Design the sequence.
């Protein structure tokens, strides 16, 4: 699978449903967590930003113990979220997808990862407890040890969260965004010069229409 950036996503035709999601209370699915072992499980700190009508997660440039100046978005007091972009294989659709969860989910996956190696080798039933939009929604994870095989991550279609579920931007691009409300490589966004401030302003309605589905962000993490 070639990697492509957010601004190029429209060049790839109708997007597949790349995000794993259980819509309502009691819904369940069988998935594989696409990690070989617990060392591969990671979280990402991001800034949730708006580009026109779209929401975009942009990776924070600073570790928690580094000065705020390292990340222009932190320096501008923009809030940071710790998220997990979990690569999963959906057994029903036979596709690899990204499941976006909060950092509290770390322990849940870890508990299974320490019992099953490779982790991708055990099918896991996921059950949603909580109605659509409910903040207290929880997910129950039940590994099916009896159906375990020795499959590894390499045996499933590749999926990368970076460039799809979240973006990595340079310090310069972030500074550009703070001035202009858009990134320079968003070439579909037209800008005009504001007569009063002289700043480049994005023209409303010039954003790409397709909005990626970020999964169930109404859920509690
Ligand atoms: Zn930051």
Sequence:
């Amino acid at each position: 699978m070639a990697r492509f950036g957010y601004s190029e996503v429209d060049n790839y035709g109708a997007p597949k449903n790349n995000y794993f999601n259980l819509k309502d209370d009691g819904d369940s699915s069988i998935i594989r967590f696409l990690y070989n072992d617990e060392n591969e499980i990671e979280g990402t700190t991001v800034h949730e930003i708006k580009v026109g009508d779209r929401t975009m997660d942009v990776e924070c440039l600073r570790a928690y113990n580094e000065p705020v100046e390292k990340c222009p978005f932190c320096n501008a007091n923009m809030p940071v979220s710790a998220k997990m972009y979990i690569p999963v294989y959906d057994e029903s659709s036979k596709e690899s997808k990204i499941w976006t969860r909060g950092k509290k989910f770390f322990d849940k996956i870890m508990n299974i990862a320490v019992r099953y190696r490779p982790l991708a080798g055990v099918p896991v039933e996921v059950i949603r407890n909580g109605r659509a939009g409910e903040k207290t929604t929880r997910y129950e994870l039940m590994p099916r040890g009896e159906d375990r095989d020795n499959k590894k991550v390499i045996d499933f279609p590749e999926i990368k969260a970076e460039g799809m579920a979240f973006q990595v931007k340079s310090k310069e691009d972030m500074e550009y965004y703070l001035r202009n409300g858009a990134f320079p490589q968003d070439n579909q966004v037209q800008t005009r010069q504001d007569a009063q401030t002289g700043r480049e302003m994005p023209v409303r309605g010039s954003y790409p229409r397709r909005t990626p589905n970020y999964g169930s962000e109404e859920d509690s993490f």
User: Anything to note?
Assistant: Confidence is low (pLDDT under 50) at residues 7-14, 205-221. The two ends are 30 Å apart (CA to CA). The chain is about 10% helix and 25% strand.
